[in-house]
Structures are given as C-alpha cells and as structure tokens.
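Entry 14. Ran structure prediction on the chain below.
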Amino acid sequence: MRAVVLEADWDPRPGTVISDEDVARRWAPNAHVVYRNPRVSVRDVEPPGEPGPGELLIRVANCGMCGSDLHMYESDEDGYIILPYHLKSPVVLGHEFSGTIEAVGRGVKRVAVGDIVAVEEIQYCGECHACRGGYPNSCERIEDFGFTIDGGYAEYVIAPVKAVWSLNPLLDRYSREQALEVGALCEPTSVAYEGMFTRAGGFKPGGAVAVFGAGPIGLASIAHAAAAGASAVIAFETVPDRRDLASRIGATHVFDPTEVRASEVVREITRGIGVAMAVEASGAWTHVMSELDLCLAVGGKAAIVGMGPESPTVNLVEYQLRGASLYGSVGHCGGWDYGNVINLMASGRIHMEHAITHRYDVEGFVAALESLRSRTQGKVLVRP
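Output, structure tokens:
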C-alpha cells in the first residue's frame, strides 16, 4: 500500500540524556535534540494485516495535515528536526484521521464493519500512575499514531477499539463523505477542547476569550469559545486568509498582532476587565506570551495549546496580581474530548468544515507539505 514515510538520522545533541531502552529502540523523548536531516517520501509499504483481539482494520478516508507534520519536515541551522515532541523514525506519518472499519478483531462489540470512525492520536497504557490519575495524554508508556507508531497517511491502519469513536452521529447533519472530512478534524478540535475545558476547566459564559493564532487548533479554539457562550472572541493572527477564517468560524474581533498591541485592544473591547481565558495556539511563544499575560482578567486562565521549541519569558507577577492561572496541555484525553467534540459537530454548535481549505491525494503529499510552509492555509486534508 502507498504511505507517507518520515526518515531521519539518530544523532543526539551533546549532553542529551536518553534512557538505554529508548536508545535501543530509537525512541526520542524530544525529536528536536535527537533527530537530524529529515526526509519524507511517498512509497509502497507492507499493509498492516488482519486485526488482532480488540483491534480494528480501518481504511483511511482523510488525514489532516498538522503543524507537527511540518515541524518534522523542517530543521534548524544544525539540521535538527524542529518538533519538540517524541518521535521514532522511520514512521508512517499522520495523526488526524478518519475512515471506515473494514475488519474487526475478536472481542470487538462497540463498533462494526462499515461504521465510519475517527481515531485518537494518543495511545495510552491505562495502567501507569498518570493514566490512573486521569492524565492519559501524559502516559509513562505513551505512543502516538504518526509519531512513534505508523499513522494515517496510508491506505490502512490497525487501531485498538479503545482509540476509536463512531462518527455515525454526524450523518444526521452531513453526507457520509462530508462526515468523514469533518471527522478528520476531531483530533485538532479535541486538542483545543482538552486545553480549554478538560485541563483549564473552561470559563463562565459571558466572559471574553482571546485566541492567539488562527491555524487549525486556533480555529477550533475560536469555535469552542463561541459555542461556550463567550461575550467576545478576540483572535490574533498575522495571515489575512486565516483572519478571514477566524471571522467565519466565530471570532467577533480579529486583529493582526503585528499592527496592534494585543493587551490594549483586549482592554478596550472588555472595558478594562480583560479576558476570562486566553488560548495560546500559535507556538510563537517568545512573541506571544508577554502580551497574553497582560490580557488576562482577574481570575483569568491561560491555556497553552500551541507547541514551539523555544522557551518564552512569562510574567509571573501578572499572574500573582490577577490571581490568574496558567495551564499546560498537550494532545487530547482518553476520556470525553472526542465524544463531546463529535456531539458539538453533530448538533451544529461548531462548524469545523469551514476550516478546510485544501485537499490532496497522497501522491501530492510532499507538495502539500511544501505549501504548508507559508502557514496561510486552514486545514489541509490528504486522501490516502
């Protein structure tokens, strides 16, 4: 079968500490300090075979391109992958995918052949301290589709049934083809949901929300804020096309942060109060955080959902004086994130189809990845 494969050289930076177990399996806790000279190609690979007990064979319909895919393709001046996340190479890329169940393994009861589904990226053990404490996205034995295990830029994927969510509720609102497209956005939309609601605990309706960055996760954050009853949803984005998408998906105010000072326009819009929640979805932390800190209202919350390789300066005094809180978040939880996102899509409370701007077949993947360098698109879908 045809698939998109990432390869890179294992070459840890001097001083990098990696366990013997991870060295033996070439599993990098942080790709940015381990893997160099990335190469991406579309080629034939062995199909995954038949599903085992508790597993499904899924024919992939759509797989969304993520900034993380680009960060695995791009490198710094020393040739190291930009991605500050775990990685094992070689690997079939793709972690935002939907598809149709082609076969089920022994013991599978919740879904059936022919069902359309979305698949969680994060594969957690369910047994470690983090998992048992309700933090499966911080699992001590974590694996991720498209990062450390073969993912969705392929014709077929084997997935455990615990990682699969039925998209059948979407068929009340969308055609089957449209449901499979929107279903591929469950992962980034759940990343935003996890940061805003599961980790940060949400905000009271009537409070204002600021979102920094209007890429796919920022757009999902905007949609969630509008659906949750924000009085104002203030988006900051440098790219004009993405600013247009932000307005279409629910932002009430949209600004180019290079032309305004974010904290000043937030104070003006909120009559000096500030925002109940600020979502960092750009990954441009060194540029964003100094302004984001100043946007928070008393008791405000900052949800850090974007990801970048650099460490920013955070004005902790502002958090102290405002009684504000900062929440780190990565990925999505193995609890209700996906289920609630699908319910929001099915009810028409959020319209993530507006975020889709480009579609490619798998043979055009490298060209699509090159086009993503401009960071002007919304969500780009690949159809294996």
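Residues 249 and 354 are 7 Å apart (CA to CA). Will compare against last week's run tomorrow.
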